């Protein structure tokens, strides 16, 4: 988002913030001083923009007063915007000591012995039937569940090509094919096959009191997305989904270790391990 605003106020000629923006006949905008860098029409005084063949005569070139005002506002708000859209290190004090709930895991998911990592495989695991297990969707829930308060955890998705992480309502359907959408009780971010997503570690921060959940790119601290006005009518569960993009894809999704174990809340978990 911050980069989007920077692109709006950046001059395409000098690549700096616009100073006294001027608009050509075709709509091209640059700094007043950068008009001198534009190519002139052959045998004339008109100017050519860098992207089209429309000629702008002197009377065609107009100052963009509203854009000049917007540039000033964006430059003033930029520090605050960066602060809002980056991870606050203090949220780590809400980090949860989380594990995977094997009783909910799809049988094509392999769960590690420490209950913190998993991946999908082509053969089914021999686990007992459970009503709470995902039967077709390659998903597994985490523990604990949340009914109030602030909670934070990080997930290492490695180089996996297909994944989703986030939270879901306790009552979500776990039978048949499932769409991971907010309409069906799932609040997640993820990556689909064929998409390029330079993200290897995701920070997840549900704030039940504020009725929101935010996602962050842990590598650079950038904000990814926030769901607002989430329901508080029932408990929420951490959810993880994974599907191998290729036969060679052996990447695990892993819940990252607690950074400050003394401040982490203990998981509420009851289930079997492999």
In short:
This is RING-type E3 ubiquitin transferase. The protein is 10% helix and 28% strand. It has helices spanning 2-8, 65-84; strands at 21-23, 29-31, 39-40, 47-48, 55-56, 62-63, 99-101, 109-111, 117-120, 139-143, 153-156, 163-169, 186-191, 201-207, 212-217, 222-228, 236-242, 253-255.
Q: Explain this structure to me?
A:
The protein is mainly beta and 274 residues long. It folds into two domains: 1-85, Herpes Virus-1, CATH 3.30.40.10; 89-256, SPRY domain (Jelly Rolls, Sandwich). It contains two helices and 18 strands. The protein has helices spanning 2-8, 65-84, and strands at 21-23, 29-31, 39-40, 47-48, 55-56, 62-63, 99-101, 109-111, 117-120, 139-143, 153-156, 163-169, 186-191, 201-207, 212-217, 222-228, 236-242, 253-255. Helix 1 packs antiparallel against helix 2 (65-84). The protein is elongated. The two termini are 43 Å apart. Residues 261-274 have low confidence and may be disordered.
């Amino acid at each position: 988002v911050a980069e989007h605003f920077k692109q709006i106020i950046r001059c395409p000629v000098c690549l700096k913030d616009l100073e006294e923006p001027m608009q050509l006949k075709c709509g091209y905008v640059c700094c007043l001083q950068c008009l001198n860098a534009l190519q002139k029409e052959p045998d004339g005084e008109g100017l050519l923009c860098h992207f089209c063949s429309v000629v702008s005569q002197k009377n065609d070139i107009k100052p963009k007063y509203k854009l000049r005002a917007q540039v000033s506002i964006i430059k003033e708000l930029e520090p605050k915007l960066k602060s809002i859209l980056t991870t606050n290190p203090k949220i780590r004090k809400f980090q949860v000591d989380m594990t995977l709930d094997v009783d909910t895991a799809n049988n094509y998911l392999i769960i590690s012995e420490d209950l913190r990592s998993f991946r999908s495989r082509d053969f089914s695991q021999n686990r007992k039937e459970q009503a709470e297990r995902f039967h077709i969707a390659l998903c597994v829930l985490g523990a604990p569940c949340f009914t109030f308060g602030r909670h934070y955890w990080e997930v290492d998705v490695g180089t996996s090509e297909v994944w989703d992480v986030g939270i879901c309502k306790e009552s979500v359907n776990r039978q048949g094919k499932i769409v991971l959408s907010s309409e069906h009780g799932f609040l997640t971010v993820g990556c689909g096959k064929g998409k390029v997503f330079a993200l290897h570690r995701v920070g997840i921060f549900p704030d039940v009191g504020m009725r929101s959940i935010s996602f962050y790119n842990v590598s650079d601290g950038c904000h990814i997305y926030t769901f607002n006005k989430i329901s508080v009518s029932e408990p929420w569960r951490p959810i993880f989904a994974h599907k191998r993009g290729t036969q060679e894809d052996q990447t695990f999704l892993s819940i990252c270790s607690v950074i400050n174990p003394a401040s982490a809340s203990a998981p509420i978990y009851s289930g079997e391990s492999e």
